[in-house]
Every structure is written in structure tokens, then in C-alpha cells.
Design brief:
Helix 3 links the parallel strand 4 and strand 5. The strands form two sheets. Strands 3-2-1-4-5 form a five-stranded mixed sheet, with helices on both faces. The protein has a two-stranded antiparallel ribbon with strand order 6-7. The termini are close together. Helix content is about 55%, strand content about 10%. Helix 4 packs antiparallel against helix 11 and helix 5 crosses helix 6. The protein is globular. The protein is of the alpha/beta class.
Length: about 475
């Protein structure tokens, strides 16, 4: 008898308890994403839902099929509300929030959901938002220099990967110069940050590429590829390699930021300093760029930031003890919330978010949290709590502490003086900022639904993916081994 149904039910029960599916506390946040592959249900459009834990990690919940439906904002809104009710036993106030890709339809759906559930933290995927800035740079309608550099780079890696003679010539030079063969990343149409990998691979093999397409060799290679002359022109003449260096200088911090927030961790409180750092980096890059580069890089970054900005970034930043600032004093000093970092109308927006997330609906509650906010932003920590915050700052490598550690601090510090702010802080500090859990889930689907397994039913496929994605202990066997064992 197949073990699949029994193991699926057993694992689902175990994981549900880990994520507080029962009880009164927060159950985490929802992440969703769409996907379609010819081998999976004859290209049936699918939407997956993952539950994001406030303490880090995620759990695959289930999929919805979307064949024959118009996936507009209303449909997206309705499906997410249904899932919110399902995972909270019809108590959606227990759900911290939702995160989905930053498409126009999704942003409209999030606005509709906020009308019904103003307490939820509703975000567009920030990894997606930063990737779209790279897409803007590659858009010929928006840039001239950047799009030209990226177009040439992609032409090179495609030309190398698609032609065995050119690839062999470069590999021969790699072995001679570097004593090893280095591969070239293939461009991915929907993963714009992947362009940086292509640039890095070209730069790391610069000497081998130039040697392979030198004048003495190129005539022979030209017989095997119509791209050979274009490749030679790009790598031998002009300013291509200088431009690669400039582009990598611009993109590396952006891509590093994407990788940082892709973790299955609640990092909402780090988005404000992250955007500030990237904004400063882009401004410095633009100020030091060659005078010949006239692309509106700063304007493009600012437009993306404004389009995908959420005022929750302000609130989460201020209430996170990891962000508290040290204030010197005769006894070693203490720590204070970083409210002074908020400028202009940011403090007012911060209070609005805290009021909404803390579910302050009566005028009395609104007045109370306003009083708390006035005191909280100016009050130094008592000595015993200052020591705790100091220990957070001394963590190895400056790593952000777990949400559980930070939330315990908020509840301890705020339970007497700032109960409403503490309530909002607990929710804000447990919120993830990307849909990467859903993206990784589709990777598992892609390995299950191969061309040779294209008739596997979606119900069975979902159970296999649930088991593969939600096992407490990672398996060492291949997906083929797991599927064979389950059947």
C-alpha cells in the first residue's frame, strides 16, 4: 500500500501544531505566488500559499487552480481572504499579514484586503521590487548606457553558451590561465538580478575570453557562429570591460540586498535602513560615474522605491530593539528608540501604522496609543533592559537577532507602560518581506513535474511537494528516490 496519503496527513498535523494553527496567538503571515508549467496538469495555472512563521521558516499550505478564471484584483483578494479564514479557523485577526509579488493587480488586491482587515501588514515582495530596478536599467526606453552594457553582456554569454567551438576555445584558455574551467550563467528572462551573475562570470574570465577571440583565432571561430564577429568587437575594442566594472559597482549592493532579504526570516524592521543605504549607494555611484553616462539612475531607483514603499517600514524600524541607539552617560549610558531618525511626516505615518496594527478602533484606544507613542519615542531604557539591547548589538557579524528574542523584549518592556505599542511591535517584528518561500516551493514542483511525469495528478503532486517541502529534517535523497518510495 502506498505510504503517501498517511505520511501526508501525519506531517500536515505535525506542522500545523508547530505554526500555532490552534490557539489564540498569531499564526504568521501568508505568502503566495503563481506558476504554470506544461508538465503540471497540462499547463494549468496554479497559485500556491505558504505560511510564514513569525520566528522564521515557512510551511507550504496548498495550491489553487486558476484555469479559466480572470486573475484580477477582486479574484486575488477573495482567494487570499478565503485562505486567511482557513488558516485561522475563521479568526483572520490572528493573521499578521500577507506578502505577494508587486504587480499592479496584486497591489490593488492588497488595498482591497486592507479595507476589510486594516490590522494586517500587507506587503509587496521587496526582493521583486529591487529586481525590477535592474529591469528598469535594462529597459532601452529608460536608459541608454545601462541597457547597452547589459544587452552586450547577455549577447556574449548566450553566444558563448550556444556555440560549442567558442565555448571550447574559451575553456582551453581558462585552463591555461586559471588552471580551471569556469561556467557562464545563463540569462533568466524573469530573474533580472541574474544579469549580475552574467557580468561577474564575464569579468572573471576576461583574460580567457580576450585570448580566445584574438585576431589569430577569431577567423576560425567565425565559421562556426554568426555571433563571432559581434563577440570579438565587444571584447576587444571599445569600453566594454570598463563598463562592466561600472555596472557591477552599481549592481553588487543591490543584489546583495536581495539575497539578504530572501531568507525565510521576518526582516520588516530592516527595510528602512536597507533602502537608505541603497539610496546613498546609488547617489554616490551616480556622482562618481564617468561623465559620458547620462542615464537617470537615481531617478529610476527613487521611482521604484516610492512605488513599492510601505509605511510599515517606519513603524517596524522604530520598535525593533536591535535598531535602538546608544546614548552616552556617566554610568555607561543607555539606549533609546531611533525615533529621531524619522523625518518630515514619517513620525505621523509611523503612528498611523501602529494604531492600525494594534487594532485600535475606539477613540479611547487611539488616544491611548498616541500618548504611548509620545512617551515611547523619547524615553530611555531602564538599566536592566539596556543590558539586553547591548547584548543584541554585540551578536557575531552584526546578525539580526531572531524575532522571538526581539518580541520577548517588546512584551517585557511594553506590557506595563506601552501595551498597545508592544502589541503592534510583536506583529511587525514577525513579518516577512518577500515571497521567496513560495518561489522555492515552485522549485520543488518543477523537480516533481518532469516531462516524463507529466500525467501525475495535481492532487498527488501537491502531497509529494507538501512532504518534500515540509519535512522537519531535510532529506539527502533525490526527488526521484522520494517519489519512488512514496508510491
Amino acid at each position: 500500500m502506498p505510504v503517501l496519503p498517511g505520511l501526508y496527513i501525519e506531517l500536515k498535523d505535525e506542522r500545523s501544531k508547530q505554526f500555532q494553527w490552534e490557539g489564540e496567538g498569531e499564526v504568521g503571515a501568508l505568502s503566495s505566488d503563481g506558476w504554470k508549467r506544461k508538465a503540471a496538469g497540462q499547463a494549468t495555472p496554479l497559485v500556491n500559499f505558504n505560511l510564514l512563521s513569525p520566528n522564521g521558516g515557512s510551511m507550504f499550505l496548498e495550491i489553487l487552480t486558476a484555469r479559466g478564471v480572470i486573475k484580477n484584483a477582486q479574484w486575488i483578494c477573495d482567494r487570499h481572504i478565503e485562505m486567511a479564514n482557513k488558516v485561522t479557523n475563521n479568526q483572520p485577526k490572528r493573521l499578521i499579514g500577507m506578502v505577494m509579488d508587486s504587480t499592479a493587480a496584486n497591489r490593488s488586491a492588497l488595498a482591497m484586503i486592507r479595507e476589510k482587515f486594516p490590522h494586517m501588514v500587507l506587503l509587496g515582495c521587496q526582493a521583486h521590487a529591487l529586481s525590477l530596478f535592474v529591469k528598469d536599467l535594462a529597459n532601452k526606453k529608460k536608459t541608454k548606457w545601462a541597457s547597452g552594457v547589459l544587452e552586450t553582456a547577455l549577447m556574449l554569454v548566450n553566444g558563448i553558451n550556444d556555440n560549442e567551438r567558442i565555448k571550447a576555445a574559451i575553456q582551453e584558455q581558462q585552463q591555461e590561465i586559471y588552471k580551471k574551467i569556469q561556467a557562464f550563467a545563463s540569462p533568466c528572462p524573469t530573474r533580472f538580478a541574474n544579469h549580475t551573475l552574467c557580468l561577474k562570470d564575464l569579468k572573471s574570465s576576461k583574460g580567457a575570453i580576450k585570448a580566445a577571440v584574438a585576431d589569430d583565432n577569431c577567423s576560425e571561430l567565425a565559421d562556426s557562429s554568426t555571433k563571432a564577429d559581434d563577440i570579438q568587437a565587444a571584447v576587444i575594442g571599445g569600453n566594454f570591460w570598463r563598463d562592466v566594472d561600472s555596472m557591477l559597482e552599481l549592481l553588487n549592493p543591490i543584489v546583495n540586498a536581495i539575497h539578504r532579504i530572501e531568507a525565510d526570516r521576518p526582516l520588516l524592521s530592516q527595510m528602512l535602513p536597507l533602502y537608505k543605504a541603497l539610496e546613498q549607494h546609488v547617489a554616490e555611484w551616480a556622482a562618481n560615474a564617468p561623465i559620458s553616462i547620462t542615464d537617470p539612475v537615481e531617478e529610476l531607483f527613487e521611482a521604484r522605491k516610492e512605488k513599492h514603499w510601505h509605511d510599515e517600514f517606519y513603524a517596524a524600524y522604530v520598535v525593533d530593539p536591535f535598531n535602538f541607539r546608544h546614548r552616552a552617560g556617566p554610568d555607561g549610558g543607555t539606549y533609546m528608540p531611533p525615533a529621531a531618525d524619522l523625518k518630515g511626516d514619517a513620525p505621523a505615518k509611523c503612528l498611523q501604522v501602529l494604531t492600525r496594527v494594534a487594532q485600535c478602533t475606539t477613540q479611547e484606544q487611539k488616544n491611548k496609543i498616541k500618548e504611548e507613542w509620545s512617551d515611547f519615542r523619547l524615553k530611555a531604557l531602564p538599566e536592566e533592559l539596556a543590558d539586553f539591547v547591548s547584548s543584541l548589538h554585540k551578536r557575531e557579524g552584526g546578525r539580526v537577532p531572531t524575532a522571538e528574542m526581539r518580541c520577548v523584549f517588546c512584551s517585557e518592556y511594553g506590557k506595563e507602560e506601552f501595551p498597545l505599542i508592544a502589541k503592534a511591535a510583536t506583529r511587525l517584528l514577525g513579518m516577512h518581506v518577500t515571497t521567496c518561500a513560495s518561489e522555492r516551493n515552485w522549485s520543488i514542483w518543477g523537480r516533481v513535474y518532469t516531462n516524463d511525469r507529466n500525467r501525475l495528478g495535481l492532487s498527488l503532486g501537491e502531497q509529494i511537494v507538501y512532504i518534500r517541502g515540509n519535512l522537519s529534517e531535510p532529506t539527502t535523497g533525490s526527488d526521484e528516490d522520494l517519489v519512488s518510495e512514496l508510491f
